[in-house]
Amino acid sequence: TLQVEATDKAGNTITRMLEFTIDTTLTTPTIALDHKDDSGITGDNLTNAKKPGFILGNIDVDASRVVVQVTHDGKSEEVALTKSGGQWSFTPTAPWGDGSYTLTVTVEDKAGNVSHSAPLTVTVDTQTAINSIALVNDTGIPDDNLTNAVRPHFRVTVPDDVNAVRLSIDGGKTWVDAKRTSAGVWDYSWLTDVTEGVHTLTVEATDVAGNTVKETM
Known about the structure:
The chain is mainly β. The chain has strands spanning 2-7, 13-18, 30-33, 46-47, 54-57, 63-72, 75-80, 89-90, 99-109, 114-116, 120-124, 132-135, 153-157, 162-168, 176-177, 179-182, 185-189, 202-207, 212-216.
């Protein structure tokens, strides 16, 4: 509180008070991928959401300006945010394409202090694939999917980020897990005899972002 006293030549005195605040600090904000959009492995900042949500933290109550900067493919844009429902958050208005995005939050308070969050890089991955399915012990004419082996051996090739491959020959009622034998290659040999006749193999692959794809042979 500042107190000012003024006296004129006649000896009259007046006093005035002024309250002021010195504010030199601002908390460092944070930004994190919303757990509901953190698909696949928790905490890996991979998502299969095209419009992922982000939660902001450590935003001081006297914040007058909150901006998130999004950088992708060398281009940046800034989005001014407002608090909603007691929470600071950000969700893109338009779908994001696959790729990496770096987000930084900038906060300015009423005193003009500015603070920046650590950059957060997330990867949007909305699709995966099964490149090929092969019957390894295909006997007779090559690639005709005919075999005299009652315990067929299958090989599945997929993108390197696939972390689970499973197979079914009963329409998905039961599944067996293939084993990763090298980068992008998964194998499984049936452990019990398969009855003679035509069978449909269903293969399901899931990548680290949680995307799943199925193919049949």
